[in-house]
Amino acid sequence: MSVFDFFKKKPSSSNTAKSRLQLALVSDRTGCSPEIMEKIKNDIIDVLRKYIEIDLDGLDINIQTKNENGELTGPTLLANIPIKELKRHER
Amino acid sequence: MGEVIVVTSGKGGVGKTTTTANVGTGLAKLDKKVVLIDTDIGLRNLDVVLGLENRIVYNLVDVIEGNCRIKQALIKDKRYPNLYLLPSAQTRDKSAVTPEEMKLLCEQLKGEFDYIIMDCPAGIEQGFKNAIAGADRALVVTTPEVSAVRDADRIIGLLEANEMKKTELIVNRLRIDMVNRGDMMSSDDVVEILAIDLIGIVPDDEKIVVSTNNGEPLVGDESLAGQAYMNICRRICGEDVPFLDLNAKKGFFARLFKKN
């Protein structure tokens, strides 16, 4: 920890409350529990594995209600899946 | 024809009964003919908040079961000639009433009153279904806390599924000092999360406790909560009323300068 970290502002507890709520409500509203998300994730992995080799550690799948500009959108499934190698088709 | 309004929240203890008592009394002060119905069967509360607990003869279940006529069960508030209460039964449970019976009761009262206001029990079971059955409009009460907002979201979803025509939000017990410090979600935060129309912001006010102790709703007095409740009543009647500036200083000098 450097001296400068000392002056860094902690995120306010109201912001923490807001972001925690937004995440909880996404799964409440879509009826999509963490267990179901896990199943979706595993199924996606199984499908992709047929064609490409993916980096499981870097994999991130979640539902978001905001786009990258922070604007509200409908619930969107966002998957970030790093590819290790494209499998070559035998000719 | 009268309008049936249900006051609901999901979570308990956020101020549904206090809101019902104050909004009902406020509308009566605005010369509307109002009846308040306590639909929390087995946990009667609205009568004590209104200071009418000693005058109960018949209750909601008596009316539903035909033990008395509606008029016999209505308690007239002596302070406000336009205000009536239909109290809940204390010794029965929620299964004593069905949503169909509540709907019928609302239809009968609509001819007689300008506003029929239902105090809904906490939860999402039978009691909630009874309370919303005949309603045209819902006021969802929440406090700026994660648990209350989450439950409010669930309630809003259920109201939508039941095709409620109008659903509006009341943010209750807001502490502006904590909001300014970043230790409480603001009403804007709550509205952004729940994405419904805001009809009122009621500040946390010690005077509410005092008014409940005395059984006298404080709507319309000079306190911030009293003003906030009266503003909600005016908005219910369709008036366009700006939201209170909760940051306004109450100090002597601030008041002196404001008046000039």
Which secondary structure elements does this structure contain, and how are they paired or packed?
The complex is a heterodimer of chains A (91) and B (260).
Chain A (H helix, E strand, L loop, with lengths): L2 H5 L5 H18 L3 H16 L2 E3 L5 E7 L5 E9 L2 E4 L5
Antiparallel strand pairs in A: 1-4, 2-3
Chain B lengths: L2 E6 L7 H14 L4 E5 L7 H5 L9 H6 L4 H4 L1 E2 L6 E4 L12 H12 L4 E5 L6 H8 L3 E6 L3 H16 L4 E9 L1 H6 L5 H8 L2 E7 L2 H9 L9 H13 L15 H8 L1
Parallel strand pairs in B: 1-5, 1-6, 2-4, 2-5, 6-7, 7-8
Antiparallel strand pairs in B: 3-4
Short note summarizing the structure:
The complex is a heterodimer of chains A (about 90) and B (about 260). Chain A is α+β, with helices and mostly antiparallel strands and about 90 residues long. Chain A has helices spanning about 5, 15-30, 35-50, and strands at about 50-55, 60-65, 70-80, 85.
Description:
The complex is a heterodimer of chains A (91) and B (260). With 91 residues, chain A is α+β, with helices and mostly antiparallel strands. Chain A has a domain at 33-91. Chain A contains three helices and four strands. Chain A has helices spanning 3-7, 13-30, 34-49, and strands at 52-54, 60-66, 72-80, 83-86. In chain A, strand 2 (60-66) and strand 3 (72-80) form a beta hairpin. Chain A is extended and about 55 Å long. The model of chain A has no long low-confidence stretch (mean pLDDT 80). Chain B has 260 residues and is an alpha/beta fold. Chain B has a single domain, classed as Rossmann fold (3-Layer(aba) Sandwich). Helices cover 42% and strands 17% of the residues of chain B. Chain B has helices at 16-29, 46-50, 60-65, 70-73, 99-110, 126-133, 146-161, 176-181, 187-194, 206-214, 224-236, 252-259, and strands spanning 3-8, 34-38, 75-76, 83-86, 115-119, 137-142, 166-174, 197-203. In chain B, strands 3-4-2-5-1-6-7-8 form an eight-stranded mixed beta sheet, sandwiched between helices. In chain B, strand 6, helix 7 and strand 7 (166-174) form a beta-alpha-beta unit. In chain B, helix 1 (16-29) packs across helix 11 (224-236) and helix 5 (99-110) runs parallel beside helix 6. The N and C termini of chain B lie far apart (45 Å). The model of chain B has no long low-confidence stretch (mean pLDDT 94).
